[in-house]
Design goal:
Distance between the termini: 119 Å
Radius of gyration: 41 Å
Number of strands: 14
Mean pLDDT: 82
Largest sheet: 6 strands, antiparallel, barrel
Helix content: 40-55%
Number of domains: 3
Order of helices and strands: HHEEEEEHEEEHEEEEEEH
Strand content: 15-25%
Number of helices: 5
Shape: elongated
Length: 396
Protein backbone atom coordinates (compact mmCIF):
# COMPACT_ATOMS: atom_id res chain seq x y z
CA UNK A 1 0.00 0.00 0.00
CA UNK A 2 2.83 2.33 0.85
CA UNK A 3 4.49 1.56 -2.45
CA UNK A 4 1.29 2.36 -4.36
CA UNK A 5 0.90 5.69 -2.54
CA UNK A 6 4.47 6.59 -3.44
CA UNK A 7 3.87 5.82 -7.10
CA UNK A 8 0.69 8.01 -7.20
CA UNK A 9 2.55 10.92 -5.61
CA UNK A 10 5.36 10.66 -8.15
CA UNK A 11 2.92 10.61 -11.03
CA UNK A 12 1.11 13.71 -9.67
CA UNK A 13 4.36 15.66 -9.35
CA UNK A 14 5.34 14.76 -12.92
CA UNK A 15 1.96 15.90 -14.32
CA UNK A 16 2.18 19.15 -12.40
CA UNK A 17 5.65 19.85 -13.86
CA UNK A 18 4.45 19.22 -17.42
CA UNK A 19 1.50 21.57 -16.97
CA UNK A 20 3.77 24.34 -15.64
CA UNK A 21 6.29 23.93 -18.45
CA UNK A 22 3.55 23.74 -21.14
CA UNK A 23 1.88 26.88 -19.82
CA UNK A 24 5.17 28.76 -19.93
CA UNK A 25 5.78 27.73 -23.54
CA UNK A 26 2.29 28.82 -24.52
CA UNK A 27 2.92 32.24 -22.95
CA UNK A 28 6.23 32.51 -24.81
CA UNK A 29 4.51 31.63 -28.08
CA UNK A 30 1.80 34.29 -27.50
CA UNK A 31 4.45 36.89 -26.79
CA UNK A 32 6.35 36.03 -29.98
CA UNK A 33 3.16 36.31 -32.06
CA UNK A 34 2.37 39.73 -30.58
CA UNK A 35 5.89 40.96 -31.25
CA UNK A 36 5.76 39.62 -34.83
CA UNK A 37 2.47 41.43 -35.47
CA UNK A 38 3.91 44.69 -34.13
CA UNK A 39 6.99 44.28 -36.37
CA UNK A 40 4.84 43.69 -39.47
CA UNK A 41 2.76 46.80 -38.72
CA UNK A 42 5.93 48.84 -38.22
CA UNK A 43 7.38 47.59 -41.54
CA UNK A 44 4.13 48.38 -43.36
CA UNK A 45 4.07 51.93 -41.97
CA UNK A 46 7.73 52.41 -42.91
CA UNK A 47 7.02 51.25 -46.48
CA UNK A 48 4.07 53.61 -46.81
CA UNK A 49 6.17 56.50 -45.53
CA UNK A 50 8.94 55.62 -48.00
CA UNK A 51 6.48 55.59 -50.91
CA UNK A 52 5.05 58.95 -49.81
CA UNK A 53 8.53 60.49 -49.66
CA UNK A 54 9.37 59.13 -53.13
CA UNK A 55 6.14 60.55 -54.63
CA UNK A 56 6.86 63.93 -53.02
CA UNK A 57 10.41 63.86 -54.40
CA UNK A 58 9.15 63.13 -57.92
CA UNK A 59 6.57 65.91 -57.60
CA UNK A 60 9.24 68.39 -56.50
CA UNK A 61 11.53 67.27 -59.36
CA UNK A 62 8.74 67.85 -61.94
CA UNK A 63 7.98 71.30 -60.47
CA UNK A 64 11.70 72.08 -60.62
CA UNK A 65 11.79 71.13 -64.33
CA UNK A 66 8.78 73.33 -65.08
CA UNK A 67 10.44 76.25 -63.21
CA UNK A 68 13.68 75.72 -65.17
CA UNK A 69 11.83 75.76 -68.50
CA UNK A 70 10.09 79.02 -67.54
CA UNK A 71 13.47 80.50 -66.50
CA UNK A 72 15.05 79.50 -69.83
CA UNK A 73 12.16 81.04 -71.77
CA UNK A 74 12.66 84.30 -69.83
CA UNK A 75 16.40 84.18 -70.52
CA UNK A 76 15.79 83.72 -74.27
CA UNK A 77 13.46 86.74 -74.26
CA UNK A 78 16.03 88.83 -72.37
CA UNK A 79 18.84 87.84 -74.78
CA UNK A 80 16.68 88.79 -77.73
CA UNK A 81 16.07 92.28 -76.25
CA UNK A 82 19.78 92.75 -75.46
CA UNK A 83 20.61 91.72 -79.04
CA UNK A 84 18.44 94.48 -80.50
CA UNK A 85 19.91 97.11 -78.11
CA UNK A 86 23.52 96.11 -78.87
CA UNK A 87 22.97 96.13 -82.63
CA UNK A 88 21.38 99.59 -82.46
CA UNK A 89 24.31 100.93 -80.37
CA UNK A 90 26.96 99.56 -82.75
CA UNK A 91 25.08 100.87 -85.76
CA UNK A 92 24.95 104.35 -84.22
CA UNK A 93 28.69 104.21 -83.38
CA UNK A 94 29.59 103.13 -86.90
CA UNK A 95 27.51 105.89 -88.46
CA UNK A 96 29.12 108.40 -86.07
CA UNK A 97 32.60 107.29 -87.15
CA UNK A 98 31.65 107.73 -90.79
CA UNK A 99 30.37 111.23 -90.02
CA UNK A 100 33.59 112.23 -88.23
CA UNK A 101 35.66 110.90 -91.15
CA UNK A 102 33.64 112.98 -93.57
CA UNK A 103 34.12 116.08 -91.39
CA UNK A 104 37.88 115.50 -91.33
CA UNK A 105 38.04 115.11 -95.11
CA UNK A 106 36.06 118.31 -95.56
CA UNK A 107 38.34 120.16 -93.12
CA UNK A 108 41.46 118.88 -94.86
CA UNK A 109 40.08 119.92 -98.23
CA UNK A 110 39.41 123.42 -96.88
CA UNK A 111 42.95 123.67 -95.53
CA UNK A 112 44.42 122.60 -98.87
CA UNK A 113 42.31 125.23 -100.64
CA UNK A 114 43.67 127.94 -98.36
CA UNK A 115 47.19 126.67 -98.94
CA UNK A 116 46.78 126.75 -102.70
CA UNK A 117 45.56 130.35 -102.51
CA UNK A 118 48.73 131.27 -100.68
CA UNK A 119 51.10 129.42 -103.00
CA UNK A 120 51.61 132.48 -105.17
CA UNK A 121 52.94 134.37 -102.12
CA UNK A 122 55.26 131.59 -100.97
CA UNK A 123 58.37 130.64 -102.88
CA UNK A 124 61.19 128.16 -102.75
CA UNK A 125 62.04 126.16 -99.61
CA UNK A 126 59.39 127.88 -97.45
CA UNK A 127 56.68 126.60 -99.77
CA UNK A 128 58.01 123.00 -99.73
CA UNK A 129 58.40 122.98 -95.95
CA UNK A 130 54.86 124.20 -95.35
CA UNK A 131 53.46 121.59 -97.74
CA UNK A 132 55.36 118.78 -96.03
CA UNK A 133 54.23 119.83 -92.55
CA UNK A 134 50.63 120.10 -93.59
CA UNK A 135 50.76 116.76 -95.46
CA UNK A 136 52.32 115.01 -92.44
CA UNK A 137 49.64 116.41 -90.13
CA UNK A 138 46.84 115.31 -92.45
CA UNK A 139 48.37 111.85 -92.92
CA UNK A 140 48.72 111.43 -89.16
CA UNK A 141 45.11 112.36 -88.53
CA UNK A 142 43.99 110.14 -91.40
CA UNK A 143 45.96 107.12 -90.12
CA UNK A 144 44.57 107.56 -86.62
CA UNK A 145 41.02 107.82 -87.88
CA UNK A 146 41.46 104.81 -90.17
CA UNK A 147 42.70 102.75 -87.22
CA UNK A 148 39.68 103.76 -85.12
CA UNK A 149 37.26 102.99 -87.98
CA UNK A 150 38.92 99.60 -88.58
CA UNK A 151 38.70 98.78 -84.87
CA UNK A 152 35.03 99.74 -84.81
CA UNK A 153 34.39 97.64 -87.93
CA UNK A 154 36.10 94.60 -86.38
CA UNK A 155 34.06 95.01 -83.21
CA UNK A 156 30.90 95.34 -85.29
CA UNK A 157 31.70 92.16 -87.25
CA UNK A 158 32.43 90.24 -84.03
CA UNK A 159 29.18 91.40 -82.49
CA UNK A 160 27.27 90.55 -85.64
CA UNK A 161 28.71 87.03 -85.60
CA UNK A 162 27.66 86.61 -81.96
CA UNK A 163 24.20 87.97 -82.72
CA UNK A 164 23.85 85.67 -85.73
CA UNK A 165 24.76 82.71 -83.52
CA UNK A 166 22.24 83.83 -80.93
CA UNK A 167 19.62 84.29 -83.68
CA UNK A 168 20.29 80.75 -84.85
CA UNK A 169 19.91 79.32 -81.36
CA UNK A 170 16.70 81.26 -80.77
CA UNK A 171 15.28 80.23 -84.15
CA UNK A 172 16.16 76.59 -83.53
CA UNK A 173 14.51 76.65 -80.12
CA UNK A 174 11.41 78.36 -81.54
CA UNK A 175 11.24 75.80 -84.36
CA UNK A 176 11.48 72.84 -81.94
CA UNK A 177 8.81 74.31 -79.68
CA UNK A 178 6.57 74.95 -82.70
CA UNK A 179 7.13 71.40 -83.98
CA UNK A 180 6.14 69.90 -80.63
CA UNK A 181 3.08 72.14 -80.29
CA UNK A 182 1.74 71.46 -83.81
CA UNK A 183 2.81 67.85 -84.42
CA UNK A 184 3.45 66.08 -81.08
CA UNK A 185 1.08 67.90 -78.73
CA UNK A 186 -2.18 66.91 -80.48
CA UNK A 187 -1.39 63.15 -80.51
CA UNK A 188 -2.90 61.08 -77.68
CA UNK A 189 -2.95 57.43 -76.65
CA UNK A 190 -6.07 55.25 -76.49
CA UNK A 191 -5.68 52.08 -74.41
CA UNK A 192 -7.89 49.24 -73.18
CA UNK A 193 -7.26 46.10 -71.16
CA UNK A 194 -5.59 44.30 -74.07
CA UNK A 195 -5.38 46.88 -76.89
CA UNK A 196 -3.57 50.16 -77.52
CA UNK A 197 -3.77 52.75 -80.26
CA UNK A 198 -3.51 56.47 -80.99
CA UNK A 199 -5.71 59.48 -81.66
CA UNK A 200 -5.45 63.17 -82.64
CA UNK A 201 -6.88 66.06 -80.63
CA UNK A 202 -8.66 68.76 -82.61
CA UNK A 203 -8.70 72.35 -81.41
CA UNK A 204 -11.01 73.11 -78.48
CA UNK A 205 -14.03 75.21 -79.50
CA UNK A 206 -16.28 77.29 -77.18
CA UNK A 207 -19.69 75.87 -76.35
CA UNK A 208 -22.38 78.29 -77.46
CA UNK A 209 -25.01 77.17 -74.92
CA UNK A 210 -25.08 79.60 -71.96
CA UNK A 211 -26.24 76.89 -69.54
CA UNK A 212 -23.09 74.81 -70.24
CA UNK A 213 -20.03 77.13 -70.36
CA UNK A 214 -16.65 75.81 -71.39
CA UNK A 215 -15.08 74.14 -74.43
CA UNK A 216 -15.72 71.09 -76.58
CA UNK A 217 -12.76 68.98 -77.73
CA UNK A 218 -13.01 66.26 -80.39
CA UNK A 219 -10.62 63.37 -81.09
CA UNK A 220 -10.12 61.67 -84.47
CA UNK A 221 -8.96 58.04 -84.47
CA UNK A 222 -9.33 54.75 -86.35
CA UNK A 223 -12.56 52.83 -85.71
CA UNK A 224 -10.81 49.49 -85.19
CA UNK A 225 -8.83 51.04 -82.29
CA UNK A 226 -12.06 51.95 -80.46
CA UNK A 227 -13.67 48.61 -81.39
CA UNK A 228 -10.79 46.62 -79.87
CA UNK A 229 -10.80 48.76 -76.72
CA UNK A 230 -14.57 48.29 -76.25
CA UNK A 231 -14.17 44.48 -76.59
CA UNK A 232 -17.82 43.90 -77.49
CA UNK A 233 -19.24 46.38 -74.96
CA UNK A 234 -21.82 49.03 -75.84
CA UNK A 235 -20.69 52.19 -77.64
CA UNK A 236 -21.70 54.23 -74.58
CA UNK A 237 -18.80 52.65 -72.68
CA UNK A 238 -16.15 55.39 -72.13
CA UNK A 239 -12.83 55.31 -73.98
CA UNK A 240 -9.74 56.30 -71.91
CA UNK A 241 -7.62 58.99 -73.62
CA UNK A 242 -4.11 59.83 -72.35
CA UNK A 243 -2.95 63.41 -73.06
CA UNK A 244 0.76 64.38 -72.76
CA UNK A 245 2.46 67.71 -72.05
CA UNK A 246 5.87 69.09 -73.16
CA UNK A 247 7.88 67.39 -70.37
CA UNK A 248 6.17 64.02 -70.67
CA UNK A 249 3.60 64.28 -67.87
CA UNK A 250 0.29 62.63 -68.74
CA UNK A 251 -3.33 62.70 -67.63
CA UNK A 252 -6.19 60.40 -68.57
CA UNK A 253 -9.61 61.76 -69.61
CA UNK A 254 -12.51 59.60 -70.72
CA UNK A 255 -14.17 60.17 -74.10
CA UNK A 256 -17.47 59.19 -75.70
CA UNK A 257 -18.15 57.99 -79.25
CA UNK A 258 -19.81 60.68 -81.40
CA UNK A 259 -19.83 58.89 -84.78
CA UNK A 260 -18.04 56.09 -86.63
CA UNK A 261 -17.68 54.62 -90.12
CA UNK A 262 -16.63 50.98 -90.26
CA UNK A 263 -15.78 50.87 -93.99
CA UNK A 264 -13.75 54.12 -93.74
CA UNK A 265 -12.14 52.90 -90.49
CA UNK A 266 -12.67 56.29 -88.83
CA UNK A 267 -14.19 57.30 -85.49
CA UNK A 268 -14.94 60.65 -83.88
CA UNK A 269 -14.79 60.96 -80.06
CA UNK A 270 -15.58 63.82 -77.67
CA UNK A 271 -13.66 64.32 -74.43
CA UNK A 272 -15.80 64.23 -71.29
CA UNK A 273 -14.27 67.54 -70.18
CA UNK A 274 -15.12 71.21 -70.68
CA UNK A 275 -11.60 72.58 -70.17
CA UNK A 276 -9.58 74.23 -72.94
CA UNK A 277 -6.68 72.12 -74.27
CA UNK A 278 -3.67 74.05 -75.54
CA UNK A 279 -2.71 71.73 -78.39
CA UNK A 280 -4.99 70.82 -81.29
CA UNK A 281 -4.26 69.74 -84.86
CA UNK A 282 -4.21 72.27 -87.71
CA UNK A 283 -6.80 71.21 -90.29
CA UNK A 284 -5.98 71.64 -94.00
CA UNK A 285 -8.30 73.29 -96.51
CA UNK A 286 -9.98 71.36 -99.32
CA UNK A 287 -7.70 73.04 -101.87
CA UNK A 288 -4.63 71.93 -99.90
CA UNK A 289 -5.78 68.32 -99.97
CA UNK A 290 -6.32 68.51 -103.75
CA UNK A 291 -2.68 69.61 -104.19
CA UNK A 292 -1.33 66.55 -102.36
CA UNK A 293 1.15 64.49 -104.38
CA UNK A 294 3.79 61.79 -104.15
CA UNK A 295 7.18 62.73 -102.59
CA UNK A 296 5.68 65.26 -100.19
CA UNK A 297 7.50 65.05 -96.85
CA UNK A 298 5.37 64.07 -93.86
CA UNK A 299 5.63 63.10 -90.19
CA UNK A 300 3.76 60.10 -88.82
CA UNK A 301 3.10 60.53 -85.08
CA UNK A 302 1.55 57.84 -82.90
CA UNK A 303 2.01 55.66 -79.82
CA UNK A 304 3.55 52.43 -81.21
CA UNK A 305 3.52 49.52 -78.75
CA UNK A 306 1.97 51.74 -76.07
CA UNK A 307 4.83 54.28 -75.94
CA UNK A 308 4.43 58.04 -75.55
CA UNK A 309 3.91 59.83 -78.93
CA UNK A 310 6.82 59.16 -81.30
CA UNK A 311 7.42 60.98 -84.65
CA UNK A 312 8.88 59.33 -87.75
CA UNK A 313 9.74 61.11 -91.00
CA UNK A 314 8.91 59.91 -94.51
CA UNK A 315 7.11 60.72 -97.75
CA UNK A 316 3.78 60.17 -99.42
CA UNK A 317 4.25 57.09 -101.62
CA UNK A 318 0.80 56.97 -103.25
CA UNK A 319 -2.32 59.16 -103.10
CA UNK A 320 -4.72 56.70 -104.76
CA UNK A 321 -4.13 53.25 -103.31
CA UNK A 322 -7.24 51.06 -103.51
CA UNK A 323 -7.92 48.49 -100.78
CA UNK A 324 -11.30 46.72 -100.74
CA UNK A 325 -12.86 49.51 -102.78
CA UNK A 326 -11.56 52.29 -100.51
CA UNK A 327 -8.98 54.89 -101.49
CA UNK A 328 -6.05 55.29 -99.10
CA UNK A 329 -2.76 57.12 -99.13
CA UNK A 330 0.40 55.05 -98.72
CA UNK A 331 3.37 56.45 -96.77
CA UNK A 332 6.91 55.18 -96.22
CA UNK A 333 7.46 56.71 -92.76
CA UNK A 334 8.20 53.84 -90.31
CA UNK A 335 5.10 52.82 -88.34
CA UNK A 336 4.17 49.89 -86.14
CA UNK A 337 1.36 48.37 -84.07
CA UNK A 338 -0.14 51.17 -81.97
CA UNK A 339 0.28 53.87 -84.64
CA UNK A 340 -3.30 53.21 -85.77
CA UNK A 341 -5.44 56.30 -85.21
CA UNK A 342 -2.38 58.58 -85.09
CA UNK A 343 -1.78 61.63 -87.26
CA UNK A 344 0.02 62.19 -90.57
CA UNK A 345 1.29 65.79 -90.65
CA UNK A 346 2.71 68.01 -93.41
CA UNK A 347 6.41 68.47 -92.58
CA UNK A 348 6.35 72.14 -93.65
CA UNK A 349 2.94 73.52 -92.62
CA UNK A 350 2.24 70.95 -89.84
CA UNK A 351 -1.32 70.46 -91.16
CA UNK A 352 -3.09 67.18 -90.35
CA UNK A 353 -3.27 65.38 -93.73
CA UNK A 354 -4.81 62.10 -92.58
CA UNK A 355 -5.39 59.44 -89.90
CA UNK A 356 -3.21 56.33 -89.91
CA UNK A 357 -5.31 53.21 -90.52
CA UNK A 358 -3.29 50.04 -91.05
CA UNK A 359 0.08 48.50 -91.95
CA UNK A 360 0.85 46.07 -94.77
CA UNK A 361 1.77 42.53 -93.72
CA UNK A 362 2.26 39.17 -95.37
CA UNK A 363 2.36 35.49 -94.40
CA UNK A 364 -0.50 33.04 -93.89
CA UNK A 365 0.79 31.31 -90.74
CA UNK A 366 3.14 33.85 -89.18
CA UNK A 367 2.43 37.36 -90.40
CA UNK A 368 5.29 39.80 -90.97
CA UNK A 369 4.64 43.55 -90.71
CA UNK A 370 6.03 45.90 -93.36
CA UNK A 371 6.64 49.14 -91.37
CA UNK A 372 7.37 51.26 -94.49
CA UNK A 373 4.03 50.48 -96.17
CA UNK A 374 1.39 52.24 -94.09
CA UNK A 375 -2.13 53.13 -95.23
CA UNK A 376 -3.72 56.46 -94.33
CA UNK A 377 -7.31 57.71 -94.48
CA UNK A 378 -6.91 61.20 -96.05
CA UNK A 379 -8.65 64.22 -94.56
CA UNK A 380 -10.72 64.97 -97.70
CA UNK A 381 -12.45 61.58 -97.29
CA UNK A 382 -12.97 62.35 -93.59
CA UNK A 383 -14.44 65.77 -94.49
CA UNK A 384 -16.98 64.11 -96.79
CA UNK A 385 -17.97 61.63 -94.07
CA UNK A 386 -18.30 64.35 -91.40
CA UNK A 387 -20.50 66.42 -93.72
CA UNK A 388 -22.73 63.41 -94.43
CA UNK A 389 -23.13 62.92 -90.65
CA UNK A 390 -24.13 66.58 -90.19
CA UNK A 391 -21.13 67.24 -87.96
CA UNK A 392 -18.31 69.81 -87.85
CA UNK A 393 -14.62 69.42 -86.99
CA UNK A 394 -13.80 73.11 -86.59
CA UNK A 395 -12.08 75.84 -88.59
CA UNK A 396 -9.84 74.88 -91.54
Amino acid sequence: MRIQLTIFLAIGVALTSVAVVGGKRIEDLDRMLREGSRSANTAKEAGAALMARELERQREERNSLVTEIERLEGELTRLGEEREEELARLRAEFLGSQGRLQELLTSSSDQLTVLESSVSRIEGAEYSSLIQELGADVRGQWTSLEARVEQASEQLETTRALLDELDGRLAEQRDLDLMWRDVMGPVVQLAGDSSVGSGVLLRSTPIAASDEPGYRTLVLTAWHVVRDIQEGRELEHPVPVTIYDRIGAAKVIEASVVARDVSLDICLLELDSREHFAHGAILPTDSRMKRAQVFETIYAVGCPLGNDPIPTRGEVSDTSHDVDGRNYWMINAPTFIGNSGGGIFDAETHELLGIFSKIYNYGAVQQTIIPHMGLVTPMDAIYDWVESEGLELGAK
